[in-house]
């Protein structure tokens, strides 16, 4: 997607015919990379303890040893838990209520105790210089009100959404994410976007919310084989190029599409989880739906790890060594 042509593309990417083409490409990409990663042993950790259910009632065929995926998913959950605990402690509704009585203390605490804000503030990336300037002048009360709205949305969503029903969602409008995508009360332009919001929501409840992070979007970029599927900008919807920014070699600046619709991203992520779960079932590995989007994130990130050189070529710089949250 071209930043300056965003309005030309946005309506097209949610058209049913376009979505079908994208999903078929994701299916094909999943099958390709699942096989590649299975053969390569994603984390070179064969023999680690099983995650979920792993039975050995029959001999595995060559290349079908599930130990690599079991290890990869187990490590993903082990890495997820400590950070998730930090998010759940900081954004506990009672803690948020206490900040309402001491609003000035929220911003310093956010920068210290919220992992994604802390990470972004301490990043040395030049890309984040403008973000840090905007964040630094954002008033604590504005940040508190926005995150309070986000936490309130999460609480109501988790309470009112049945996991069994959610697991069957297959349309964008079923997710009900408009309040966190479109409402002014739940965003701060240029400071808090869906990248940060989805990180918070994901760590609070990975059952319902995938992290719309850089590597996951680039993972979909790879799964879809960089195809534009006829978009007016003639570029992938998972990537954003900026004609007003150029790298030292004269190429246009490229990154993940940080404006990508969260409900659409979640739909593809949920479908990917169902595909992934079906793929490991014959290997007698049972995935826990509670961690569904931890698994999809792990898979998409491993695809990126496998294709570092391709990402560098197509995005035009070493994106995997940089970090942009918003």
Kindly name the structural category: mainly alpha
Instruction: Please state the overall shape, judged from the principal axes of the Cα atoms.
Output: globular
* Number of helices in the DSSP assignment: 15
As a percent range, the share of helical residues equals 40-55%
Compute the average pLDDT: 84
Pattern of helices and strands: HHEHHHHHHHHHHEEHEHH
Q: How big is the Rg?
A: 20 Å
Q: For the report, how would you describe the main beta sheet?
A: 2 strands, antiparallel
Low-pLDDT regions: 42-63, 317-326
How many domains make up the coordinates?
1
Total beta-strand segments: 4
Overview of this protein structure:
This protein is mostly helical and 326 residues long. The protein has one domain (3-321). The chain has helices at residues 6-10, 16-40, 67-90, 93-100, 106-113, 115-122, 129-136, 140-160, 163-166, 178-181, 194-204, 214-223, 262-280, 292-306, 308-315, and strands at 53-54, 239-246, 252-256, 285-286. A two-stranded antiparallel ribbon has the order 1-4. It has a two-stranded antiparallel sheet with strand order 2-3. Strand 2 (239-246) and strand 3 (252-256) form a beta hairpin. Helix 3 crosses helix 11 (194-204), helix 3 (67-90) crosses helix 14 (292-306) and helix 5 packs across helix 6 (115-122). It is globular, with a radius of gyration of 20 Å. The model is unreliable at 42-63 and 317-326 (pLDDT under 50).
């Amino acid at each position: 997607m071209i930043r300056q042509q965003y309005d030309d593309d946005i309506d097209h990417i949610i058209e049913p015919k376009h979505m079908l083409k994208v999903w078929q490409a994701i299916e094909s990409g999943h099958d390709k990379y699942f096989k590649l990663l299975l053969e390569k042993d994603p984390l070179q950790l064969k023999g680690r303890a099983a995650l979920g259910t792993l039975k050995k009632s029959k001999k595995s065929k060559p290349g079908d040893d599930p130990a690599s995926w079991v290890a990869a998913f187990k490590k993903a959950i082990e890495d997820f838990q400590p950070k998730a605990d930090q998010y759940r402690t900081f954004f506990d509704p009672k803690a948020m209520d206490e900040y309402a009585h001491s609003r000035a203390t929220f911003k310093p605490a956010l920068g210290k105790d919220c992992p994604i804000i802390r990470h972004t503030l301490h990043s040395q990336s030049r890309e984040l210089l403008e973000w840090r300037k905007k964040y630094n002048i954002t008033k604590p009360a504005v940040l508190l009100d926005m995150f309070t709205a986000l936490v309130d949305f999460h609480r109501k969503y988790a309470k009112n959404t049945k996991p069994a029903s959610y697991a069957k969602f297959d349309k964008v409008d079923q997710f009900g994410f408009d309040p966190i995508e479109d409402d002014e009360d739940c965003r701060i332009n240029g400071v808090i976007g869906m990248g940060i919001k989805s990180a918070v929501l994901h760590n609070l409840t990975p059952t319902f919310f995938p992290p719309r992070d850089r590597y996951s979007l680039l993972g979909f970029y790879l799964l879809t084989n960089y195809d534009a599927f006829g978009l007016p900008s003639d570029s992938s919807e998972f990537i954003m190029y900026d004609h007003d920014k150029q790298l030292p070699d004269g190429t246009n600046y490229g990154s993940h599409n940080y404006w990508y619709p969260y409900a659409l991203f979640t739909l593809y992520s949920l479908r990917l989880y169902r595909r992934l779960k079906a793929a490991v079932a014959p290997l007698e590995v049972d995935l826990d739906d509670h961690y569904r989007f931890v698994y999809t994130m792990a898979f998409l990130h491993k695809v990126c790890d496998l294709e570092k050189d391709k990402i560098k070529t197509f995005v035009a710089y070493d994106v995997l060594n940089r970090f942009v949250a918003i």
